Amino acid sequence: MPEILYDAHPSLLRSRPFGTLLAILLMLGGILVALVGDQIVPPEFRQSVQVDGRTLQMIGIGIFAFATLQLLIWWVTARTDHLEITPDEILWTHGLLSKQYTEINMASVRTVRVTQTLFQRIMNAGDITLYTAGDTPELMVCGLPDPGQIRELIKAQPTSGG
C-alpha cells in the first residue's frame, strides 16, 4: 500500500463559516422559542397576530428542524468528497450513493492553482484546481483544509511536472 501524503474531506466549518454559524444560531433560537416563546414574546404582539403558546412551540420546532436539516445536508455533502494524495497519484472520490472517482497520475500534473477568499485564508481552507494537458482543469476541489500543503506536496514529488 503506497504512503498517503494527504488525506482529507472538505471542511464544513471552513467551507461555510457564516452558514454554519447561522444554522447553529437558528437551532438555538428555535429551541429558545419552543421552550420559552410564550414568555419572551409580549402578550400584545401575540394577540395582534393571534399566536398562542402552542403555535410558538411549533414555530420554534420548525426553525430548529430547518436549521438542523440544512446543517446535516452540508455535513453529508462535505463527507461525500474525499481527496487522497500518494507519491504516485491523486485520487478524488465524490458521491454518496453513486461514486465518481478521478485518478490523476502525479507525473501528468502540469499546474496546481490554489484560490482562497479572505475568509478561506482566515480559516486555512481553499480551492484547488489541477491542470494536466490542455486548458481546462482536470480536477477542481473546493473547501479543502490547508491548500498550501497540497500544492507543496504535489510540487515536491520528483515525478511531477508542475
Strand segment count: 7
- Number of helices, counting only DSSP H or I runs of 4 residues or more: 6
Q: Briefly note the CATH topology name of the largest domain.
A: PH-domain like
Strand-pairing-aware structural class: alpha+beta
Give the C-level CATH assignment of the largest domain. Mainly Beta
Helix fraction? 40-55%
Cα separation of the termini: 25 Å
Give average pLDDT, whole number. Answer: 89
Strand order across the largest sheet = 1-2-3-4
Our count of domains comes out at 2
CATH architecture label of the largest domain: Roll
Q: What is the general shape?
A: elongated
**Content of β-strand:** 15-25%
Rg value: 23 Å
Sequence stretches where pLDDT stays below 50 over 5 or more residues: none
Secondary-structure element series: EHHHHEEEEHEEH
Task: Describe, in plain words, how this protein is organized in 3D.
- This protein is 48% helix and 24% strand.
- With 162 residues, it is of the alpha+beta class.
- The chain folds into two domains: 6-10 and 83-156, PH-domain like; 13-77.
- The strands form two sheets. Strands 1-2-3-4 form a four-stranded antiparallel beta sheet. A three-stranded antiparallel beta sheet has the order 5-6-7.
- Helix 2 packs antiparallel against helix 4 (53-79).
- The chain starts with 5 loop residues before the first strand and ends in a 6-residue tail after the last helix.
- The mean pLDDT is 89.
